[in-house]
Amino acid sequence: MLSFIAHRLLSTVVVMAIVAVCIFLLLHLSPGDPAAIIVGDNATQLQIDAVRKQLGLDDPLAVQFARWLVGILNGDLGVSIFSHEPVSKLIGQRIEPTVSLALTTLVFAVIIAISFGVLAAWKIGTWIDRLVMVLSVLSFSVPVFVVGYLLIYVFSIKLGWLPVQGYAPIVDGFDIWIRHLILPSVALGLAYVALIARITRTAMLDALAEDYIRTARAKGVATGPVLMKHALKNAGVPILTVIGIGIALLIGGVVITETVFNIPGIGRLVVDAISQRDYPIIQGVTLIFSGVYVIVNLLVDLSYTLIDPRIRY
Amino acid sequence: MATSRRMFVKGTVASAATMSAPGLLSAQTTPSQAHTVRAVLHGDLKVFDPIWTTANMTGNHALLIYDTLFGLDDARNVQPQMVDKWSISDDKKTYTFTLRDGLKFHDGQAVTSSDVVASVRRWAARDGAAQHLFKRVADTPIKDDNTFAIVLKEPYGLVLEALAKIETNLPVIMRKKDAETDPNQQVTTKVGSGPFRFNEDETKSGQRYVYDKFAGYAPRKEPPSGMAGGKIAKVDRVIIENMADEQTAVAALKAGEIDFYEIPPIDLLDQLEGDKNIKLDVLNKGGNVGMCRLNWLHPPFDKVEARQAMLYLIKQEDILKAVFGNPKYYRSCASLFACTGQMQSDVNTDWFKGGQNIAKARELFTKAGYDGRPVVILQATNIAFMNNASLLVAQWLKEAGVNAELAASDWGAVITRRAVKKPVAEGGWNIFITWGSGEGFDNPIGFVAHTANGEAGWFGWPKDDLHETLRDDWALASTLEERKAVARKLQENAWNYVPMALLGQWAPPVARRANVSGFIPLPAHVPFWNVEKT
């Protein structure tokens, strides 16, 4: 087990190194000049050139990359070209909204999706099964921003139940914190619900066809324990796998959701940075996201051993 | 230990109370919603130094926390602001200024002549209009703490107008120690002497920027008028929210979560007009003027006939209608100086009065020796006006027999490529679309797009010696009437040699909650003094 973890962590370093090189080259070879954006549209070329020099953007690409790499190896993600604030500080300021949104989305999606998936498998072939599948297809097909605008229109503008936008830190109170997260979590979570619900249904159908389920029923075990204790536990591995894969979906969705609901998280930070070519922020956030993705998948792999004792590393 | 239901309920209530406490405490120490105005402006505030950048968001920040020596009133007359009195010597070469009593910075220090001179000199190192003025400045002596002078080498007609400049870079007054920062380096402190002070603790970069009423500000006694008169902060706090999504901002305005939205999307204006809680006002009467910048360095626009062809090719009405829809908010305009300012005229605009003439444009391109080579238009697809105008211009060029090619990218990439002076085949360009404020267009000296000094000038690099001479004449003219006469000559000459083609003028409204009023109409910026909430 320990050697497996060590091996995976080592591969994480390699993955992040490749990501670092790719993101640096992609950013610096694509068109766009932060110096021209900083000084404003009415600036002259002389003013733009002066800022380029001051920011070190006229240095050879290799020099810029080496400078950034040395910083990374020293734990320094660099400084924002625009605000002059350390990228690590900016990410630190934005991490709470993003983690809050990701967690509430995950809780919402997993609870709803597994319930629906189990229900659909149990009621296979009935209108309930078909309804769950139709809703899954719809949830997966409608873009996050469309769902977001619909939710805002109904629950914020028409009914006035929930805020349109913004984020309240949890220290301001749990009620205000959760009120700001309900709509974004639902908007972001629907696609995730669809993905997990479909996999849950399929995995449950496979499990329910197994001999041990027939045995359990023959022994007179009630439907609830058959579904939740015998079938769901054995259907857990593919469900956990898809939850892990879905983290990438979640990361991509966070960027859009934070923009639609004006949540000051890491997604907004990176969207703003891309439009302004704030290279250090984009590079820093991409590195962090890739690290998170790799580690989450490692945790998912490790969690297999908890639900299936046959799996050993 | 077993947990009883009663204990669980007690624990939950206690936890909720604990978690809510900071919010309650915070509510007691911050201004109430009734005294706070929340606004969404046109972008995010990334740079805080209004001398270092020409970004209008930074200009908005500057108007809140800094003050200026002079200001233009609603009628565009220069009025004193920080200055109490001033005099001009008989030879018109020495301007002496005395500051008002009671001016102080947000750190409590008095504003002195040293602060002012250092600020004006730093501004002069960055701003085009200031540089034009300072070419003629011999000295800026400090007489005492409240008195200083500007001594000229020769009389110059726009000294006060430059100091009252309303476009970026704004001539704001900083503390001497801030103003002594290298003009090529950003000032990162935010300490001014304006009606609001920057609240660093409550500000969250990229999310919201908080400004509190500065109790130590001494406003002028005159009623507010443009940038002149009393800048009275009538609310305790102004919060500038950074909201990237237009739909969300409109929804937030309708729900009362924000009070002011600077640029509501045109296609949602009908929806806002139908809401009794929302009011729409056109604050920036001059609005913006679209322009089609032509690259003078390469064919076909190195030939005057090709540039003249563009005048006949463009139908402003079609572009404006495609982008802004409602004619209430736009107008066609052929004046080089926009159609709302003091310099406007219809001199030498017969090309415009005759309407679009594709056949004439085709004839002129032929005269220019156009050989069928690709004409590249930089198309910023993420900005509606630039995107739509590029598409229409490309279509008209094709109708005129020109091999127009659209180079689609975001605006960030356009502003990089527009600086490339190489031929199209090596990454250059022929046309890009942008706009300037109507107020800016009205000023031949202050507006960078009005330069015609070749490669030392602005993108497109037009060159015309007569134009440059006339710009100097305009600046040296001593009366408004003289300046208007020079402006007419400038326009007559311009529409012969064609520095650029115009795409029309538009002035969209801002949206505000009905209970928030008092916004002062200014070009390009939104001031928050005089704003009140009932």
What does this structure look like?
The complex is a heterodimer of chains A (313) and B (534). Chain A is built from 13 helices and no strands. Chain A has helices spanning 2-29, 34-39, 45-55, 61-73, 87-122, 127-141, 144-158, 174-208, 211-218, 223-234, 236-260, 266-276, 279-307. In chain A, helix 5 packs across helix 8 and helix 11 packs antiparallel against helix 13. Chain A is globular. The relative contact order of chain A is 0.14. Helices cover 31% and strands 18% of the residues of chain B. In chain B, strand 16 (375-380), helix 13 and strand 17 form a beta-alpha-beta unit. Mean pLDDT of chain B is 91; it is low at 1-5 and 15-28.
List the helices and strands and how they pair.
The complex is a heterodimer of chains A (313) and B (534).
Chain A: H1 2-29, H2 34-39, H3 45-55, H4 61-73, H5 87-122, H6 127-141, H7 144-158, H8 174-208, H9 211-218, H10 223-234, H11 236-260, H12 266-276, H13 279-307
Helix pairs in contact in A: 1-13, 5-6, 5-8, 5-11, 5-13, 6-8, 7-8, 7-11, 8-10, 8-11, 9-10, 11-12, 11-13, 12-13
Chain B: H1 5-29, E1 36-40, H2 56-65, E2 70-72, E3 78-80, E4 83-88, E5 94-99, H3 113-124, H4 128-134, E6 137-139, E7 142-144, E8 147-152, H5 159-163, H6 176-179, E9 196-198, E10 208-213, E11 237-241, H7 246-254, E12 260-261, H8 269-273, E13 278-281, E14 288-294, H9 304-313, H10 316-324, E15 330-331, H11 350-353, H12 358-367, E16 375-380, H13 384-399, E17 404-409, H14 411-417, E18 431-437, H15 438-441, H16 465-476, H17 480-497, E19 500-506, E20 510-513, E21 516-517, E22 532-533
Parallel strand pairs in B: 1-11, 1-12, 16-17, 16-18
Antiparallel strand pairs in B: 2-3, 4-5, 5-8, 6-8, 7-8, 9-10, 10-11, 12-20, 13-20, 14-18, 14-19, 15-19, 21-22
